[in-house]
Design a protein that fits this description.
about 280 residues, alpha+beta, four-stranded antiparallel sheet, 11 strands, about 30% helix, globular
Length: about 280
């Protein structure tokens, strides 16, 4: 009995760790490696968090927009979208994804269809083609809201494309921008399509009413424009003139009034809002 008791006591003492061992638990090499990995992840997360909440300076914002713009241009098919992305460089929607809000061939050549698709969608770029093949564009940074009024907007501009090839390729050297040089820059009336100044570019999209809240017949109150594809343009008073001396955004020989073959309006979903934009 005594021998058995002593053996049991010795066996138990061998299994009980010493106080020193209990105070300093062993850590395997793999555990240390895992701990280091956790620390690295936490450190990286903190850096990303600080980067996210730190305001970007103007140069960083420009670089970011430029990278986004070039990626979008590279992935866009030739034509209106590629040219629009290039043309909108340094505007409020530079580098933003664009969509076709209104297409006259799809939605109809009417003012009501235009405003139904474009009102409240934010800054809007109009891209069109005349019957003789002239390409032009018009940018409204404020967007359309059927305000039944006109607005000043120094950032508004018209653009003519020097060739079909420059339009298809989005070639900046083939775009001539015609800046707003007089007030008002934008006419925003529900009974007519996009209008830039009283004479820079007017696309009634239907028969302009002789009177009423839309002012669609400014200066020509009794005129019935007939075709819903009609467009009127006269440069010099509210939008700058062209370098080639042509007095409209149309082709040479189309004078100041013509019919359109294509008309689309591009907007950025990221800029849609209920309230008005200010210039």
């Amino acid at each position: 009995m005594i021998t058995t008791t002593m053996t049991t006591t010795s066996s138990l003492s061998a299994r009980v760790p010493s106080p020193r061992t209990m105070m300093m638990p062993s850590i395997s090499r793999s555990s240390r490696r895992d701990e280091k990995k956790v620390l690295v992840v936490r450190s990286g997360f903190f850096d990303e968090f600080m980067k996210a909440i730190t305001p970007k300076n103007a140069e960083e914002i420009r670089e970011e927009k430029a990278l986004k713009r070039e990626r979008l241009i590279a992935s866009s098919p030739k034509g209106a979208m590629k040219s629009a992305l290039r043309l909108l460089e340094n505007t409020v929607i530079d580098g933003e994804e664009l969509v076709v809000a209104y297409d006259a061939a799809r939605d109809g050549w009417t003012a009501s269809a235009f405003h139904q698709k474009c009102d409240g969608k934010g800054p809007c770029l109009i891209v069109a083609k005349t019957e003789k093949g002239a390409r032009f564009a018009a940018y409204n940074p404020l967007g359309f809201f059927s305000l039944e009024d006109y607005r000043d907007c120094p950032g508004a501009f018209l653009c003519v494309f020097k060739s079909e090839q420059s339009f298809l390729n989005g070639d900046a050297s083939g775009m001539e921008i015609l800046r707003n040089v007089g007030s008002p820059a934008i006419f925003d009336f529900g009974a007519q399509g996009p209008s830039f100044g009283p004479d820079g570019l007017r696309i009634p999209l239907g028969n302009a009413p002789a009177n009423g809240s839309s002012y669609a017949g400014i200066g020509e109150a009794t005129t019935n424009y007939g075709s819903s594809k009609k467009a009127i343009s006269r440069l010099g008073s509210h939008y700058a003139g062209r370098s080639d001396g042509v007095t409209s955004v149309f082709a040479k020989g189309e004078k100041n009034e013509t019919n359109l073959k294509e008309l689309v309006a591009l907007v950025s979903p990221s800029m849609e809002r209920d309230g008005l934009y200010v210039s």
